[in-house]
Amino acid sequence: MTPTTALAVLRRSAPTVALLFGASALLLLTDRQSAKRALPAIAVLQQTSSPVLEDTIKGMIAGLTERGFVDGKTVTIRRYNAEGDIAQGNAIAREIVGGPFDLVLTSSTPSLQAVATANTRGRLKHVFAAVTDPFTAGVGLDRADPLVHPPHLVGYGSLAPVHTTFLIARRLNPRLARVGVAHNPSESNSRRSMELARASCKLLGIELFEVPVENSSGVIEAIQSTISRGAEAIFVPGDTTVVSAIDSVIATAGKADVPVFSVNPGVPDRGTLFDVGFNYTEIGLVAGRLAADLLSGTDPKTVPIRETTRVIPPYLVINVTTKAAAPDRWQVPEDLKPQARCLIDGTGRHDQPDAVLKGPFDEAPAQ
User: Fold this and answer.
1) Is the CB of residue 226 less than 8 Å from the CB of residue 182?
2) Can you give the pTM of this predicted structure?
């Protein structure tokens, strides 16, 4: 074959070669997209933007990663945030249940309820965390039997030690007689926290000034109302609505020289006098590990609903340098100082990461 003939043959075959090359490339791209779609898909829903819920989700993703479920490599994860809007949360839940997901993780009681309602047929496996009391959330759980739950729904309850919190408040100020609190009664987690707070205050002889709110925009006015009635301290319960506005609560109370305490530990120097509760990153971590177990084949029907205190103890943070913590009224007993994971006082900041708050945690003096 002469060079001229070879060139002519090459020219005639060029379109065929290009077509084959294009088809091969298309098949390769299709295979890659199919492989990507074949990865397990996880949706993550939180009710609002707050440190507690963000820490929980951070822990969830870390727990999945620890077990080999890495976003973008071995699993796909898509996050959703209802930004405090219940209706929006319900709409997102329906979108998730109707979407291309294998499992959903929820952070907060409202998110648990929204997905549980949308997912009654159990199309998706569902793991929840950062829920004050899942047994009162109306999602089919039985406090008497942890194995009684919808066959696709499992997770961890985080019932904060409310009574322990009020005991510590009384120890820091033996004369404490009046406490103010804003709460959203539409949240089952808040209702449970308030039941415990009322029982504790009744036992301790503390008058509790309550103001209900419907959303975060009403929290500040509610706090101001309790202060005008003589509240000597403000309590922030396990309430998603109020926690989302906790910085404003601290600022408002601080202007009146009224300290704030909560069951939502956060940054030790954020301005609360003290906090008793859980490390929500650790809570998210155990929930993420549980989700990984389900993705690996564990049958959720065999998994009991557990309280966080069985795996993670609550911890204490104290900051008596806050402007509202008048030293003539609020002082830390010496035996309590070693139990604080972080103590900020006149001598500086003392981090004690191994400190253990002494139990038992009698968070429910009356059921």
Assistant:
1) yes
2) 0.74
